[in-house]
Amino acid sequence: MQPTLFVADLHLSEDRPDITAAFDAFMSEQAQNAAALYVLGDLFEAWIGDDDTSAFNQHIKQAFRRLTESGVPVYFIHGNRDFLVGKKFAHQTGIQLLPEQMVIDLYGEKVLIMHGDSLCTRDHKYMAFRKKSRGWWWPNLMLALPLWYRRKVAKNARKTSALHQKNSSEQIMDVTSSEVDRVMTEAGVSKLIHGHTHRPAIHKFQLGGKQAQRIVLGDWYSQSSVLEVRADGMQLHAKSF
């Protein structure tokens, strides 16, 4: 049986050809044999708009187009680095855009999938930015600016984010347990898959007196982290590059 694959936090950029090479290998090999591929945000280090037609972006889009045209459905949830991915990108690649939170049927089990940034409620500075960036006016304002200026904004934002992460405690940067419980209870699920924290693990805990699981996908800064799910179980893989 073909597996369903989940990835997140690839952070693709022209500055990291090693990650791009790992992505190309994944798309042409492992992903080709999948029942479906779910990308749970931060595919790019920064996505400044669908009108950025650089050679690098075209390369990534073509990889997705080849996969979807081969018959593998690809689903995408926005992350905090690529929330400007829009309908044009989806049309050009054949991927399907999903809402921020989605309950899917995974081999007969209801599973909640998301990027995971909304779970980090103790990071008040980021949560304030998230509220602004996911609203209606800020994205439209950004997309109205010229590409060169958006590139500058994105570069400065990455520097600010790196400094914020360096100066914040691990507890603040990780998910809030009570928020995990809340979203899973509201969704009526006992299994959650997300990325964002770059702390790959399969957590088992009690939720409403029942066994629950939270699966965290790893990032691709030093390895290709892939969750492989089949009807008889799951495996969280990490291949160094």
From TrEMBL:
Binds 2 Mn(2+) ions per subunit in a binuclear metal center. It comes from the Bacteria. It catalyses: UDP-2-N,3-O-bis[(3R)-3-hydroxytetradecanoyl]-alpha-D-glucosamine + H2O = 2-N,3-O-bis[(3R)-3-hydroxytetradecanoyl]-alpha-D-glucosaminyl 1-phosphate + UMP + 2 H(+). Its cofactor is Mn(2+). Mn(2+) 2 binds at residues 42, 80, 115, 196. Pathway: Glycolipid biosynthesis; lipid IV(A) biosynthesis; lipid IV(A) from (3R)-3-hydroxytetradecanoyl-[acyl-carrier-protein] and UDP-N-acetyl-alpha-D-glucosamine: step 4/6. The keyword Lyase does not apply. Its EC number is 3.6.1.54. Its main location: membrane. GO terms for molecular function: hydrolase activity. Mn(2+) 1 binds at residues 9, 11, 42, 198. Residues 4-200 form the Calcineurin-like phosphoesterase domain. It is a peripheral membrane protein. InterPro entries: Calcineurin-like_PHP, LpxH-like, Metallo-depent_PP-like, UDP-diacylglucosamine_Hdrlase. Transmembrane segments: none annotated. Substrate binds at residues 80-81, 123, 161, 165, 196. It is found in: Cell inner membrane. Signal peptide: none annotated. Keywords: Cell inner membrane, Cell membrane, Hydrolase, Lipid A biosynthesis, Lipid biosynthesis, Lipid metabolism, Manganese, Membrane, Metal-binding. NCBIfam families: lipid_A_lpxH, PRK05340.1. PANTHER family: UDP-2,3-DIACYLGLUCOSAMINE HYDROLASE (PTHR34990:SF1), UDP-2,3-DIACYLGLUCOSAMINE HYDROLASE-RELATED (PTHR34990). Belongs to the LpxH family. Hydrolyzes the pyrophosphate bond of UDP-2,3-diacylglucosamine to yield 2,3-diacylglucosamine 1-phosphate (lipid X) and UMP by catalyzing the attack of water at the alpha-P atom. Involved in the biosynthesis of lipid A, a phosphorylated glycolipid that anchors the lipopolysaccharide to the outer membrane of the cell. This is UDP-2,3-diacylglucosamine hydrolase.
